[in-house]
């Protein structure tokens, strides 16, 4: 998935570079494309950490964070689709991503507290902490994307 996203990112950047007239500022489109790539990279890292650190059984709230990542991705796809005409409903998409990120922050804090109150070994705590951090970073990357989309629409309206 991450390699496909990188290839797509390069195609988009080539397209941006080859066009004389673009619907938005070239720099804004490059930043937006880069942030979308970062979102995919963060999702890939979160999933890889489960395998790399042999996490095994996870807390139900980690599944909830994974669901939040999926919802953020869906809202991001909707927001990018609405950029063509800057539909007024685009605002709903970035606000929902922000709400989801706030929910993920609460879950993350609860999971960190549970982790450090557990009877796990130091090695297990470190592996779980790195994995939790990667899930949090994935959600945060979508919040950054939402902010970039919001700024782009404000500049263009």
Description:
- Helix content is 83%, strand content 0%.
- The protein is mainly α and 157 residues long.
- Helix 1 packs antiparallel against helix 2.
Order of helical and strand elements: HHHHH
- What's the number of extended β-strand segments? 0
Mean pLDDT over all positions: 87
- Report the portion of residues in β strands: under 5%
Largest sheet: none
Number of helices: 5
Shape: elongated
**CA radius of gyration:** 18 Å
Structural class: mainly alpha
Distance between the termini: 34 Å
Topology, element by element:
Layout (H helix, E strand, L loop, with lengths): L1 H17 L7 H27 L7 H23 L7 H28 L4 H35 L1
Helix pairs in contact: 1-2, 2-5, 3-4, 3-5, 4-5
Please describe the structure with a list of short key phrases separated by commas or semicolons.
mainly alpha; 157 residues
């Amino acid at each position: 998935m991450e390699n496909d996203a990188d290839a797509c990112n390069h195609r988009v950047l080539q397209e941006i570079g080859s066009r004389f007239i673009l619907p938005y500022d070239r720099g804004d489109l490059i930043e937006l494309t880069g942030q979308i790539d970062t979102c995919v990279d963060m999702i890939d890292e979160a999933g890889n950490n489960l395998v790399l650190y042999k996490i095994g059984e996870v807390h139900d709230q980690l599944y909830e964070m994974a669901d939040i990542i999926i919802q953020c991705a869906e809202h991001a796809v909707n927001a990018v689709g609405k950029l063509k005409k800057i539909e007024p409903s685009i605002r709903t998409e970035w606000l929902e991503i922000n709400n989801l990120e706030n929910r993920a922050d609460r879950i993350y804090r609860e999971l960190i507290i549970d982790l450090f109150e557990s009877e796990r070994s130091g090695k297990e705590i470190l592996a779980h902490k790195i994995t939790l951090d990667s899930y949090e970073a994935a959600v945060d990357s979508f919040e950054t994307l939402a902010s970039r989309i919001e700024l782009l629409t404000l500049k263009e309206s």
